[in-house]
Each structure stands twice: as structure tokens, then as C-alpha cells.
């Protein structure tokens, strides 16, 4: 029987071992066993042959090939590892890798003044040392300056960074030099100058870098801002601040901008020069100062009104600097060069002032034309120190006051500008020195113009503005000269005229009956009401009158527009004999300057009694004009916004009697009743 492949392989391995010099000594003779009958461990009945099974089972050939391939792969890996170890050992110990250019072996030192003046040229000494074993190829030194740095040759040119080529720096080589720039910053600020070295090494295209940072402190800024003004003010009073921008630089500072940030409660009014832009909503303003030469100063004056509660501090913030581009439309400062914070405290008025008119106080006082008005000014020293040389001035403006009617006991009226002045000379020394908490009063009086002088003026009024000034002992941050103000408005009520005239001879309806009137016989008259108005509009106006029992309303009137029963402008109450003329609104100027007055004529009949013989009996009684003066109503609503304004009596006239003087052709001899 032909042996199988597996058996042949085993025989071949045995043959190689027998003839091998290295393996044959390892082959030892084994102890021979006696040939004999071996007993089977399997029962005798296990004699069946399994179908389909070969007589001998061996490992497939593919497994052997796989084992051989794995052995070859393992051998190749071992050889590669040994080669790599050898190559890197040679490169880093003997070859080029032993000369690496590490950034840690590059020293960059920067030296210069620890403090500099902003706006002055500054020189920095830079030294680069290559401590590597290889050269640095294509080395560039890059200096990055802080924001706002300018060129020392042209202060207008922005200098952000400099690139200085150094070329090749050999191993152990040194390069040194100086750079110059004009750095800008506020006093006390710090800025960093970053110095970088970019380089390459031979045989590599990669760019490496080493860096160093140098910190500079500013002892002064290129610009300075000084703000002058009162550190204290009174709420609602004008505030004026003078802002000076000066150059501390050795070269011109180009395109300087000044920005003002106003505090809450400040209302900007004006400035000199006017701001380039002013944003009231954002509470800021910008001025284009332009170029400032060394030692030059520019001044801006800001005015406004500051409001707030007593004890509040309001902070004004002023910043001066430059833009990146002088031709830009933006007014935003990119490089601040100086700033100043100015605080104004709102305090109680140093001299409290209170104005009263006829003993009454309020925001709006109403008087009548021709009235004599008495004005009192109460003052009080609110400071803990004495006030010296106090002066109080009252200015009259608005309607023209006759200077001859102005009287004051302790003051002086200056007619050329309509002011009343009180000082230590007019008050007998009372205002020379005001002790803390001291109080007093000054007064004056005048007469309001008559209606004729006001007939061409709509809503006339008189303004009284009181200003006080004085001095006090100097305090830190507080000016010696102090001011306080107070204002009072006086309005004039409208000057209404109401007349009631009896007519017999000029009766538009025609008169019937004897003249003079005769007892027991009716005589008819016309009653004419005339209303004029000067300055203020009158609303809800009405004229009322009462008829005596011996006078009857005939029911005839003129004009028809006022007597139309559909409009109910004219009504008569039979029960109490009251006649009412509902006029409605009376506009200003009615009956003046050629304008027709408001008039009403009615016909009445008078039947005298014998008991009235020799008398001048009244034909109309209790004649009144009732309405609402709009100016007075507005003043009342300011005091009490929720008040309901009701019509009041504005004018009244005397009773109309049988003595109807003024009627053409009438004489006083016909005024009494005859028998």
C-alpha cells in the first residue's frame, strides 16, 4: 500500500534528523519492549468498519503553508525593527538630527525704559541669540506694537507692526538692533510690545517661531484733559463746563477727537465751538479738534441744565483720542489718548428763595388789569457757613410795567432794565453777612397795566426772575462765588366789560307810552346788553338779570341769532322773572380794534304804581356775567389736576332804572314817575 503524504513527511523529517550533525546526537536509543500480544481496550464486538472513513487522518496542507507564511512575516518585522533602531540612533547621535533648532534655544531679549511719556518717540534694544547647533534660515524679526502706536517720522501714520529681515543666523550667532516708535496711552496704563522671530531650518519647509513680550508703563499721556466748572449746582440750574485739551507730545497729534458723555439728568443746550455731532438720545457729543501741535491747547465750553435730587452725583466723562483713518466718516475714537471724569454734586440752594404775590404762592398767579401787585421774596441761608456780600436781583419781563408805579422800601428800582436790586447798601447792611440759618424778606410792589394797554395782547403775563449771589469761605472743590435763582409767573385775567342800557328814544323796537313814565300807564323800553373781552377766552358765558314784578318781558328781542327759540340762547323764567342769555364762548378781542361786541336787545313794558311817584324805579336788577376764564382755569388745574372748573361771576353792573342817561334825547327830568 502506498504511504500517504503525511507519512512521507514524517519519514523525511526523521531522515534529516538522522543525518544532521546537530540533531543526531540528540537522538537516543529507546528501550526496546518485548514483542507480545497486546490486549485491546475495546471490546471484541467492536469489529465494524466505518464507511466513508479513510484509514488514516492527517492535517490539511493549507495549514502548513499558513504556518510557513507567518514565520516569514515575523522574520521581516524583526529585521525592520532592528533597521529602524539603527537608523534613528545614527541620525540623532551622529547625523543631522543631532543639531535640532529648538525655539527654547533661541534667546530674544528686549530692553528699554520701564516708563515712557505717551506721544514721545521710544527706542527699544532687541538682541537675538541662536543657541542651537544648526543655522536659522530666512529669519525675520516681527515687532507688534500696542494699539495707537505711530511712526516716529510721521505721527499721523499708524504703526501696527514691523517686519525686519535678519537673513541667516548661524549656530551660536547673535543679531541686535533698535526699533523706534511713538507709543500712546493714558497715564498709569501698561502696554505690551511683542517680539517674534520666524525662521526655517535647512532641509525643511516648515516655519518655526520664538517670541518674547516687553511691558511698558506710561508715565504720561500724549494728550491731557482739564475740566473747569462748579463741583456743586442746584437742580434745574444752568451748568457750564470748560474742557481744555492740551498736547504733551513732542510731535503734532493728528486728527484729535473729543467725546463727551453726559450723565443722566443733563440737558445739553449749547457749546462753543458747536459739536460736530450731538446725540441727545445717547447723551453724548463729539468735537473734531483737528491737529494739535506740541504744547498747544484747544478749549471747548459745554452748557446745559442739570436736574436731580439733592445729594445726587452726576458724572461727566470726556475722552480725547484719534481715529484710524482721518478721512473716515465715523466719529468713533479708536485710540483713546486721554480721559477725564468730572463729578458735579446736586445740592440744596445756598440761599433759599421763595416768591409770593399778594401773600399767595404757586406756579401761576392770576391778577386783574389795573391791580396793585405786592411781591415778597423770602430768603434763607442754607449753608453751614456765613454768606457775605449777598445780592438779590428781581427782573420784570413780559407786559410793560409803568416804572412810576414800582415801589420798594429796602431796594432800588433800576428803570433802564426793569430790575429791583437789594444789597448791603440798600438794606442798611442786612445783606452784608448772612449767618448760617439766617432768614429774611425783601419786597416791592407795582401796578398792572390797564385794559386799554392790554387790548392788543393775547394771554398777557408778567415774569419775575429772582437771582441771588454771594460769597462764602473757601472749601475744597467748592467755588467761592455762588448763585441761586427762582421764578414766578403772573398772568392777567381777561378784562370783560358788561353794560346794560335802557332806551326809549332810540328804542329799536319803537317805544309806546308816556315819557316821563306815568303811574298806571305802561311805557315800553328797550334793554340793550353789550359785552366786550380783552385777552383771554371765556367759556360757558351767560348773562342773567331779574325783572321786578311791575316790569314784563314783551317777548321781542334782537338779533335773531341770539333770540332763536330753537337754540335756547335766550330764556325767560315766568316764575321768578329771570332772564338768561346763554352766550357760550367769548373770544379774545371781541369789541376791540373795530371788532363788533356781543349785543342783545329786548323789549320790556313798565307800569309804575302810584307808590313810585317821584321815584326812579329799577327796570332790571342783579345783572351779572358768569363764565370761565380759561387762563384762570389752567392755573387751577396745575394746582389741582382733578378739579372740576365751574362758571363763576366775572362781571356785574348796576341796576337799570328809569334814569336812562345815555339814550339820545333823554334828560334827567324825565327819569322820575309822575302822577
Helix content: under 10%
Biggest sheet character: 7 strands, mixed
Radius of gyration: 58 Å
Strand content: 35-45%
Outline, from the CA principal axes? elongated
Helix- and strand-based class?
A: mainly beta
CATH top level assignment of the largest domain: Mainly Beta
Average residue-wise pLDDT:
82
Please give a structural write-up.
The protein is 10% helix and 44% strand. The protein folds into four domains: 103-220, Immunoglobulins (Immunoglobulin-like, Sandwich), CATH 2.60.40; 223-346, ntegrin, alpha v. Chain A, domain 4 (Immunoglobulin-like, Sandwich), CATH 2.60.40; 351-492, ntegrin, alpha v. Chain A, domain 4 (Immunoglobulin-like); 497-670, Mu homology domain, subdomain B (Immunoglobulin-like, Sandwich), CATH 2.60.40. 25% of the residues are buried. β33 and β34 form a beta hairpin. The protein has 675 residues and is mainly beta.
List keywords for this structure.
six-stranded mixed β-sheet; 5 helices; seven-stranded mixed β-sheet; Immunoglobulin-like; mainly beta; 4 domains; 675 residues; 38 strands
Entry summary:
10% of the residues lie in helices and 44% in strands.
Topology:
Blueprint: H1 5-19, H2 61-93, E1 106-111, E2 115-117, E3 121-130, E4 136-144, E5 161-169, E6 174-182, E7 190-200, E8 208-220, E9 223-228, E10 232-233, E11 237-247, E12 253-261, E13 266-272, E14 277-279, E15 284-292, E16 297-306, E17 313-322, E18 335-346, E19 351-357, E20 364-367, E21 372-381, E22 387-398, E23 412-414, E24 419-422, E25 433-434, E26 439-447, H3 451-454, E27 461-471, E28 481-492, E29 497-503, E30 523-532, E31 538-546, E32 551-558, H4 560-563, E33 570-573, E34 578-586, E35 598-606, E36 618-629, H5 630-639, E37 648-653, E38 656-657
Parallel strand pairs: 2-8, 10-18, 20-28
Antiparallel strand pairs: 1-3, 3-6, 4-5, 4-7, 7-8, 9-11, 11-16, 12-15, 12-17, 13-16, 14-15, 17-18, 19-21, 21-26, 22-24, 22-25, 22-27, 23-24, 27-28, 29-30, 30-35, 31-34, 31-36, 32-35, 33-34, 36-37, 36-38
Amino acid at each position: 500500500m502506498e504511504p500517504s503524504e503525511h507519512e512521507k513527511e514524517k519519514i523525511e523529517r526523521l531522515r534529516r534528523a538522522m543525518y544532521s550533525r546537530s540533531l543526531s546526537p540528540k537522538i537516543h536509543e529507546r528501550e526496546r519492549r518485548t514483542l507480545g500480544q497486546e490486549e485491546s481496550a475495546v471490546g471484541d464486538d467492536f469489529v465494524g468498519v466505518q464507511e466513508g472513513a479513510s484509514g488514516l487522518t492527517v492535517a490539511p496542507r493549507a495549514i502548513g503553508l499558513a504556518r510557513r507564511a507567518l514565520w516569514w512575516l515575523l522574520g521581516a518585522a524583526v529585521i525592520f525593527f532592528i533597521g529602524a533602531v539603527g537608523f534613528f540612533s545614527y541620525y540623532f547621535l551622529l547625523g543631522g538630527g543631532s543639531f535640532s533648532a529648538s525655539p527654547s534655544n533661541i534667546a530674544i531679549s528686549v530692553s528699554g525704559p520701564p516708563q515712557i511719556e505717551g506721544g514721545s518717540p521710544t527706542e527699544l534694544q532687541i538682541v537675538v541669540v541662536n543657541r542651537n547647533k544648526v543655522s536659522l534660515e530666512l529669519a525675520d524679526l516681527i515687532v507688534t506694537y500696542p494699539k495707537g502706536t505711530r511712526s516716529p517720522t510721521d505721527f499721523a501714520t499708524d504703526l501696527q507692526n514691523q517686519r525686519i529681515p535678519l537673513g541667516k543666523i548661524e549656530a551660536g550667532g547673535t543679531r541686535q538692533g533698535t526699533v523706534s516708535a511713538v507709543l500712546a496711552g493714558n497715564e498709569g496704563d501698561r502696554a505690551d510690545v511683542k517680539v517674534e522671530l520666524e525662521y526655517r531650518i535647512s532641509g525643511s519647509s516648515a516655519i518655526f517661531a520664538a517670541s518674547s513680550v516687553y511691558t511698558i508703563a506710561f508715565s504720561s499721556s500724549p494728550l491731557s484733559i482739564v475740566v473747569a466748572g462748579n463741583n456743586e449746582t442746584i437742580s434745574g440750574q444752568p451748568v457750564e463746563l470748560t474742557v481744555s485739551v492740551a498736547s504733551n507730545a513732542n510731535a503734532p497729534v493728528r486728527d484729535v477727537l473729543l467725546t463727551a458723555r453726559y450723565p443722566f439728568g443733563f440737558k445739553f443746550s449749547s457749546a462753543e465751538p458747536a459739536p460736530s455731532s450731538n446725540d441727545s438720545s445717547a447723551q453724548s457729543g463729539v468735537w473734531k479738534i483737528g491737529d494739535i501741535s506740541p504744547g498747544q491747547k484747544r478749549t471747548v465750553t459745554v452748557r446745559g441744565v442739570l436736574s436731580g435730587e439733592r445729594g445726587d452725583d452726576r458724572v461727566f466723562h470726556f475722552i480725547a483720542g484719534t481715529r484710524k483713518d482721518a478721512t473716515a466718516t465715523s466719529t468713533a475714537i479708536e485710540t483713546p489718548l486721554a480721559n477725564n471724569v468730572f463729578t458735579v454734586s446736586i445740592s440744596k440752594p445756598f440761599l433759599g428763595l421763595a416768591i409770593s404775590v399778594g401773600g399767595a404762592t404757586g406756579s401761576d398767579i392770576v391778577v386783574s388789569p389795573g391791580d396793585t401787585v405786592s411781591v415778597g421774596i423770602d430768603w434763607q441761608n442754607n449753608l453751614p457757613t456765613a454768606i457775605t456780600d449777598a445780592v438779590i436781583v428781581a427782573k420784570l419781563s413780559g407786559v410793560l410795567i409803568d416804572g412810576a408805579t414800582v415801589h420798594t422800601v429796602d431796594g432800588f428800582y433800576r428803570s433802564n432794565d426793569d430790575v429791583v436790586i437789594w444789597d448791603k447798601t440798600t438794606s442798611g447792611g442786612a445783606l452784608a453777612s448772612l449767618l448760617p440759618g439766617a432768614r429774611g424778606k425783601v419786597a416791592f410792589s407795582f401796578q398792572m397795566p390797564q385794559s386799554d394797554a392790554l387790548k392788543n395782547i393775547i394771554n398777557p403775563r408778567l415774569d419775575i426772575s429772582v437771582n441771588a449771589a454771594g460769597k462764602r469761605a473757601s472749601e475744597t472743590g467748592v467755588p467761592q462765588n455762588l448763585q441761586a435763582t427762582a421764578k414766578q409767573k403772573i398772568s392777567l385775567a381777561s378784562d370783560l366789560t358788561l353794560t346794560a342800557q335802557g332806551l326809549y328814544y332810540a328804542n329799536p323796537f319803537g317805544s309806546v307810552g308816556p315819557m316821563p313814565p306815568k303811574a298806571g300807564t305802561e311805557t315800553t323800553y328797550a334793554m340793550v346788553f353789550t359785552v366786550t373781552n380783552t385777552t383771554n377766552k371765556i367759556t360757558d358765558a351767560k348773562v342773567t338779570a331779574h325783572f321786578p314784578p311791575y316790569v314784563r318781558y314783551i317777548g321781542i328781542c334782537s338779533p335773531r341769532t341770539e333770540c332763536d327759540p330753537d337754540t335756547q340762547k335766550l330764556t325767560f323764567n315766568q316764575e321768578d322773572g329771570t332772564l338768561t342769555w346763554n352766550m357760550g364762548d367769548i373770544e379774545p378781542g371781541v369789541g376791540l380794534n373795530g371788532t363788533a361786541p356781543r349785543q342783545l336787545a329786548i323789549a320790556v313794558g313798565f307800569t309804575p304804581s302810584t307808590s313810585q311817584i317821584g321815584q326812579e324805579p329799577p327796570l332790571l336788577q342783579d345783572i351779572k356775567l358768569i363764565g370761565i376764564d380759561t387762563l384762570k382755569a389752567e392755573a387751577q388745574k396745575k394746582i389741582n389736576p382733578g378739579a372740576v372748573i365751574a362758571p363763576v361771576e366775572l362781571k356785574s353792573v348796576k341796576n337799570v332804572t328809569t334814569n336812562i342817561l345815555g339814550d339820545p334825547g333823554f334828560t334827567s327830568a324825565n327819569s322820575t314817575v309822575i302822577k
